[in-house]
Amino acid sequence: MKMSISHIKKISSELNLKNSQVDAVAVLLEDGATVPFIARYRKEATGSLDEVVVTAIRDRLQQLSDLDQRRTFILKSLEEQGHLNDELKESVMAAETLAVLEDIYLPYRPKRRTRASIAREKGLEPLAELIFEQNGADPLKAAADFINPDKAVETIEDALAGARDIIAEIVNEDQAARSKLRRLYFSRAIIHSRVSSGKEILGAKYRDYFDWQEPALTVPSHRMLAMRRGEKEDILNLSIGPPEDEAIKILEGLFVKTDDEDSAQVKLAVHDSYKRLLSRSMETETRLATKERADREAIKVFSDNLRELLLASPLGSKRIMGIDPGYRTGCKIVCLDRQGMVEYHDTIYPHTSEKQRREAAFKIQNFVARFRIEAIAVGNGTAGRETETFIKNLDFAHPVNVILVNESGASIYSASETARKEFPDLDLTVRGAVSIGRRLMDPLSELVKIDPKSIGVGQYQHDVDQSDLKQSLDDIVVSCVNSVGVEVNRASVELLTYVSGLGPQLAKNVVAYREQNGPFASRALLKKVPRLGPKAFEQAAGFLRIRGGQNPLDASAVHPESYHIVSAMANDMKSTVTDLMQNSQLRKNTDIKRYVTDKVGLPTLMDILKELARPGRDPRRVFENFTFASDIEKISDLENGMKLPGIVTNVTAFGAFVDIGVHQDGLVHISELSDKFVKNPADVIKVQQKVEVSVMEVDLERSRISLSMKKIPGKSPQKVKPTPRSTNPKIRSGNIGKKKTPFNNPFADLLGS
To answer: Model pTM greater than 0.90?
Structure first.
């Protein structure tokens, strides 16, 4: 990624930062530093920029670099064609967006034969130029001179038609015209959605969009993506464009100079240019722009949800029984030690017959006693609630928590190469039970083994740009892993892969070294790992934890590069490093200003003191058990008006999904999230949040549940004065006319599939 002063200044202006801050981040990135490392350990250089801003700088630098690459290609192409002059070069160099750059290049871009190029081959360009000048020439008389049967110009109209084709292409390639139309499209374009003929029944899930229109400027991401999916499946026909008369008026104002006959020909060419060329080009651009905006919003929703899920409260190192429930095929059981290793596995059948139910009860009680089980994790899929109830009714010799665990993605893990490598001798159903049990212990450590797209906390994840989605989700996983820290002597390859500075190969090398040489006694020993050089060590060391190691600081987030500072603090206080970590008074009496240098400032020193107070502190919330209503297990048990406890499983642009323990999540529509007006569901609710909901409606036939979090379900929310915007009814957000806004019912098999 090439840096330039202009890029630094541009990003500084866009993000309201100092040039020095952006430059520092750019230099660090260029040197191979990761986002978590920069945000955590280079605060003095960046002015304490957080991960969000550092990521924004990184992404914008990449965008500008890509723009420069395209600029270089265009300059080379223009030079090879013999078109490059000082004026054109200056225009290319000054272009600040890809759209402007492509507009400049458009007239010179190699293209297939067009109606205009064919007309030029017929020798009609001089006629087109004469007419386009609009100096009062008689087009009929002028065209007569260009009749040439040998070139298929049989009549005056043939000549004029060819000239208009050339003019239409000139209009299409005009920078000013494209710029003005682009602004019109982006501000006034309307999306029209219509059902394809004969697809009404096949496309019933898209019925909200069978006859729909709304401004492209304000269309919500979920509606845009839903309509595009419908179009991709040939159910819907979409068109995007502003009022045609407004577009034509702009073009006529640019190119039609008089009321003479030659201007009449230009007017015809302008109309043709818009309908045949410009409208298609602008619609494509608008489609791309709305898609990119919808993608960004959908990806952000997914990313925010994923962060909450990854940072869910861990139960910690406990002896866990993991259960993957089932009816006919039985419940797969695994007993895990405090490190998550499988000690025993079996299958029980508590839902088939009374005899097998008694046998299952005996086995569970025996396993709990034998393996000193402290908690039982039950998957929340098929037979989950029934299995939970069965186990809760059993008597144990010691207290045992029974917890229903979201098993989304467990089946993906069980069939993965990772699972096969971990448990080559176990059936995939047993591996699923392991995943459920470990997920209770430490959600982060287990979920990193699963493709984030399979976890089920997004919307339309298969419809958005997959590379952008992957980058964003990877960023979230990296951020979460490094914010929590990783126990290097227990971590899997998958978890280590996301540690700053490591990656897949070094993660494998770390685990291989650990298996060959035993647990790491210190961070310093990481340097002995093959191919883990000084740069990788610098990036990774602060995020790796070694508890009970040779140096107590190895269990903290204090970076090894700062160990000498802590030693100096301890010496000055006439104590040991351990004393300093255990004695709050010693830390209070430490004057950190004494340790400020040209490289280490107060931000780093304050972080060090915080770490000394709580070394290796887990930022995640303390685990709290959650229990569903004991008498509600199936959707048929629900009645309108019931108030039930629930846990949020997914947040979308149109509301939130809540698990109330009946094998089917209910939807709290955005209008039912709060007694106050809610613009963005993420502002008021998060994944894993525990809530109380009211049942509004139950559709048994389609297994759909409508829920509310309001005091009075269905009551209109308190309105907030809207942000001033154009009052022109043609561009006002929402539907055009009197039609109801689509509910975009997520139950209609659209969400996330």
So the answer is: no
